[in-house]
Amino acid sequence: MSDNPTYPSDVAFSPAVKAIQTRKGSREAYAEVEQGHGWRTEIDDNLAAFIAAQTSFFFATASADGQPYIQHRGGPAGFLHVLDKSTLAFADFSGNRQFITQGNLSENPKANIFLLDYAYRQRVKLWGEARVVEDDPSLLQSLMPRGYRARPEQVILFKLKAIDFNCKQHIPQKFDAADVKTALESRDARIAELEQQLARLQGQLAPAV
Q1: pLDDT tens across 61-100, in order?
Q2: Tally of CB atoms within 10 A around 56
């Protein structure tokens, strides 16, 4: 991708990609998207709310020679912060200390955030550039989820370049265990309430001896 792309989607649609789209018959449709509204480059309120509800995402980087790496990031809802319409950030928790992501970003800032909500079968891809911030303890503290048992090590800042929303095709519907537990507890409480009401009615209708 050039530093001054014609369209935001050029971050993903390289000349090689466009050539394959042409050969396989999808280039015309994507050209119409480019000429129209195209891919978005800013986070609106709806997307910000979607991001704030996520408890995990996948973070992709690549080394200087192009070796890709994808790492899962997880935390309580809201751990991925929207700082402004084009900037996201999160506290980077201490893990297995391989530092592959940090090493990649030190020589190649290009990155991708892939958000996948299984419950609602929605996925969003965010292209941009990222950098590691190791010397801003106040920023790190502000991004740390309150009460979350993890050791924050540094901050990763992500500057957005393009957003792509994908269809829900082939996404299996799954629910978080905590959400299922809450739903079952609510159901069981309602069943118990109805059973008590039924017992009272049966007592009122029982013939006197």
Answers
A1: 999 999 999 999 999 999 999 999 999 999 999 988 899 9
A2: 16
Q: Say what the alpha-carbon torsion angle 14, 15, 21, 26 is, to the nearest 10 degrees.
A: 80
91-146 tens-digit pLDDT: 999 988 899 999 999 999 999 999 999 999 999 999 999 999 999 999 999 999 99
Q: Which of 73, 48, 47 is nearest to 60 (CA)?
A: 73
DSSP 3-state of 75: coil
Residues 50, 117: Cα–Cα separation, whole Å = 9
**Residue carrying the six token digits 């996925």:** 123
Q: What is the DSSP letter of 11?
A: G
b vs e for 70-105, b when ≥16 Cβ sit within 10 Å of the residue's Cβ?
eeebebeebbbbbeeeeebbbbbbeeeeeeebbebb
Helices (H) and strands (E) in the chain, counts: 6, 7
112-134 in b/e form (b: 16+ CB < 10 A) is bbebbbeeeebbbbbbbebebee
Q: Which residue has the tokens 């079968």?
A: 121
Give the C-alpha separation, 168 to 165, whole Å: 10
Q: Return d(Cα 119, Cα 100) in angstroms, integer.
A: 30
